[in-house]
Amino acid sequence: MTTTEQPERDPRLGPSGLAGEREMLDGWLEYHRATLAKKCEGLDDKQLRERSVPPSELSLLGLVRHMAEVERAWFRRVLIGEDADPIYYTEEDLDGDFRTSEDDTWEEAYATWQAEIAQARDIAAAHALDDVAVRPDRRSGEPLNLRWIYTHMIEEYARHNGHADLLRERVDGATGD
Hints:
By secondary structure, the chain is an all-alpha fold. The chain has one domain (20-172): Up-down Bundle (Four Helix Bundle (Hemerythrin (Met), subunit A)). The chain has helices at 21-40, 45-49, 60-79, 106-125, 146-172. It is globular, with a radius of gyration of 17 Å.
């Protein structure tokens, strides 16, 4: 390695404090993706399905399934206009991604989530931050660019990683980032 080459950063460190805008957005999104995976490490399927408190159906496995849906929605459906069907929810059960049963496994949810992340990375890499999404924001009807999608994804993961902190502590007492 020469003095100008930098080793690949651990995504759990976050991006360099001197990173440019794109590297910063990519870095924080990767940090939050890695954080959710870390919150699930070492738990079995039953623990991952454990819900917070009634009446909430929130679980770590449900969060991973939800984030697979979120990755798919923002990068595939909104940014490039792909007609990608929902994975876990339906029109009749809009919270189906959060609802888990004994048949739902970490292996399947993790593989699905990682596949959606891989596609999101590829799609994002092919676009500039100022590229406007094919579909507008569903609430406001306003056009969105990739920069907005990155910022929203970071916010979405950060919010759900806070939930994951509490869920993990409830499951086995583990705390920390």
